[in-house]
Amino acid sequence: MQEDLLTKTFSEKDHEEALSLNDGLMAKIHHSTDPNYCSSEPFRVSSYALILITKGKMNLRINFTEHVLNQRDILLIFPHAVYEIRDNSEVSFISIHFSKSYLKTRGVFFNSGEAYRMFQTDPIHKFSLSKEEHTFIYYDMLAIHKKLNVPKDTPQIKNIVHNSFLELLYDIFLLKHKQKDAMPFVHDSKTELTNRFLSLVSENFKKEKRVIYYANRLRITPRHLSQVVKHVTDRTAGEIIDEMVIREAKLLLTSHRMNISEVAMELRFSNSSFFGKYFKKQTGVTPSEYKLSNNIAV
What we know:
Strands 1, 2, 3, 4, 5, 6 and 7 form a seven-stranded antiparallel β-sheet that branches. It contains 13 helices and seven strands. It has two domains: about 180 residues, Jelly Rolls; about 100 residues, Homeodomain-like (Arc Repressor Mutant, subunit A, Orthogonal Bundle). The longest helix has 24 residues. It is α+β, with helices and mostly antiparallel strands. It comes from Pedobacter suwonensis. Keywords: DNA-binding, Transcription, Transcription regulation. Pfam families: HTH_18. One of its GO terms (molecular function) is DNA-binding transcription factor activity.
């Protein structure tokens, strides 16, 4: 059962089951020539992932925008984004997947607010490594992959694997900060508040799109919330809410399982006309135009 799940493609259900069977941490080595290589269909998972391109290049669509990952590029995948591998030409990569529950149970503070800001100036959450850096990170990831295949009854194996995971995580953040000449992470009240806001939005954006709702939940004023979120992420609270709503709308529109009225209802808009105006304001096209020009199946 476990082996079957690990060789399946990136459907959200299979991915979550495989992660659960592996205590929330999983490593995989991928080659485009393998029969069980990732599906070309769009996928979305609720976990985090780190992907390192070891050979060739990958054409990847992230939240419906095209990007290219080249050899020695490393990509940080955030929960709930929509991904689609557009080209199955020669490419090899190694990936580490970790769930929110794994981070929580292991006492890891993964600062999503700081990570959001750190990667915000890039088109996607990725950066390129030098040959030396690539070798360094590759062997970090390979070590996790090997240790995860050690029998689970090996004494202290969970702690050994977790320490390797932490080493990888912080090595990557140190390299990213080095490239950007940034200051080290600071866990202060602003980043903590932003993390709580991002978590609330990801759970409630369908039914609540007003900044005042989240401000009330956090017991602060809307003005203060937007100022803090802007400071940490370079985006206002309202812009982040809109971003999550539009991302979900695009996924629903391209799935072809719902018509526009049903999408509007799913996203809790009062009617399809209001949804259409909102969507066009944010994207520049109507839902119908977007649906017609993005004919994919999820």
